[in-house]
Task: structure prediction
Amino acid sequence: MTAPDGRTGLGGNRAVLARARALRAQGVAFALALVTDTEGSTYRKPGALALVAQDGERVGSISGGCLEPALDALARDVLASGQVGVATFDTRGEDDLVFGSGSGCRGRMRVLAWPVAGDAPRPMFDALCRAHDDGVALELALVVDAADAGRGLAWRADDDAVGHDDALSASLRAAPDGLHEADGTRFARLRIAAPPRLLLLGAGPEAPPLLQLARALGWVAEVADHRPALLDAQRLRDADQRHEARPAAFLPALARAPDAALVMTHLASTDLEALAALAGMAVPYVGLLGPPGRRDELLAQLSPQARSALRPRLHAPVGLPLGGEGPEAIALAITAELQRHFNARR
Result:
């Protein structure tokens, strides 16, 4: 999918929130849907978002299409009532194949939907947008019983106030993801993850397809390179930001470390410079492009302390061994490995 500006269409929760903000700015009412808890085999998992606008526009999904008509109906109900709605979709029974959605997924999914219209405050939506902007996960403990659906707690993963609540709130904050019951009320404990932040140190031939895949997955991707000719805006149109800088100057100046950094300048001296800078940074995933021999030569030129700091998080050669050759195949292999890394918690 291509956007009107020629960029790859956004994907993931990032696409849902981007469209939600645009609709709210235009004064168009919509229902924001959230998967709160699941059991068995389901197409989407807790934390997945979707929206349905008052004109029927839908962004995001909760299934492969079989449950979307029911999502549309839920959205119409909450927009008409102005109240949070809840729906449970259970495809585990044999009757569902004939009389239900017909998906055969054999799972149960619960979805909450909030109406967002006009300037009426929506604390959960606003908190989600702020956490998304700051690259921080939003933690939730929400009531899923129909009478009080949507009430509960929302706090950022970097919140230092944990432990200063009443006993129930403290218990819900500490609870694992899933369904919990307290005083006869059921809560869903879940996390809405922030989009992963990816930094490409090098704008070589793999950069454009990598950026395209990253944007389609809803990641935030930046590129830094000291060669201005490679930073052409049209060539790297899917980058969220482009920086003309060398690694030694650029990396220490970052306000926040990325979730993953890919060293891929195709220049041994610049890759070495990047690895040396990354050794002293809290970047969970460091990928290095090139064969094992090149990796070993570069690591041998680092100090023992730098090698020791890098090794537990260094992926070199970066990418899953999918086969194929050329920039597109390399980009796919790297994206596949990153996807696995980013979803390891789940």
